[in-house]
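Q&A log
Question type: sequence-to-structure
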Amino acid sequence: MKKWISVFIVFALAAVFFAGMAEAGSAYTFILAWGSGGSSSGQFNNPYGVAVDGSGNVYVADTGNNRIQKFTSGGAYVTQWGTAGSGNGQFSNPYSVAVDGSGNVYVADTINNRIQKFTSGGAYVTQWGAGGSGNGQFNNPMGVAVDGSGNVYVADTSNNRIQKFTSSGVYVTQWGSGGSGNGQFNSPRGVAVDSSGKVYVADSGNKRIQVFSVSGALSATVYYNGSPLQNAYMYLQNGAALPPLQQYYQKAAYIYGPSSSSGVISASVPAGTYYVMIIKRAGGSSYMGPPLPGDYVWFNLGAITIGTNTYLGTVNATVYGGSTSLTISGTVKGQSGKALAGWAVKATAVPCESGNWGYAHSFNECGVSKYPAWTDSNGNYTITLTNSGTYYVYASPRLNFANTNYPGGYPTCTAGVGCEACGDYFYYNCPVNVSSPVTGQNIVVPGY
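Response status: OK
Response body:
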């Protein structure tokens, strides 16, 4: 009797085991396939991307055919759009496709270095991007994904980074650089976002998946002179010590904005400790580059730890450049009296010039602060300074063209101290003491 009981137990356990195997295997049971090689409806040429909307419709990035095809969940052909080219609704090797909660379709149009947005029926809506490495530019974007709030994440493959945008293509932030460390990438080709907001990246060249959590929330309300400051940007930089000014705009870990008409900037930010700076450009919409006199700025003096929900409160911007009473002004004219419009003029605290004057807006050469300005149509300029003291004034007709021979020989200085021409710029060694507005710092350029 015991023998039969043992045999029964063995068979029972075997039955449970094989039933479990069958159940586990059933999760991978083949259901359906469709498609074949070709260019007709329902055929494919190297399809690289696929996405499914909330109704079960399937969208395929038919890469080699430069089109998107739409099918039912059963594989029935519905529609298609796209041809080879760079116009609206055309593609050049679309590698990836994503669908948001409203049925909008986003396509990583890889060779055209852009994202295109369409309705679920394929009607063109908008696009953004261009070739390059700046914010909002791409270099072979191969992956695209959309989160529950409609934010769009792009695997900017050859730039080794992930970029985040609103559903309409407004740049939000980016992260990543070339390398193999945590948060670095080597040709990231795929990106996905789960329901909690975690971002998953297929870091192809490094043969791994990286996961990022956007768990913090940061917001601030920016005011100037009692009124909301619109179109301001927030710069975040990691570190235990207050970074140099240039670190904010050149190596910012994250950039958010612009602020709304009520002055509010809000963003999802990886939890951590940051230094924060806010800038609004007085002279245009660009948010990159160092602050210039007249820009609106706000600096925090200590590191801020960003947790689940961090509100900086109402912050009050000031005008960069200090007191407007510390100015140097004059004209730049030719020897004939002709006004020289569009010339770059700058002041520096010591006569320190080495090599070409690469950019009029360079703020630090030889460790010296520089203050730039440009002449108007009448040749007039005004330089705004931050501190009183002795300054040297320089003017240049153009930049970055070395060994240019200017007509008329060397320029002259009204201060009579001396001058020289170096490379592609005129060099004026004319010190002036500034403790109140200084006018009449006129520069006469021979040969013009």
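Response note: The radius of gyration is 30 Å.
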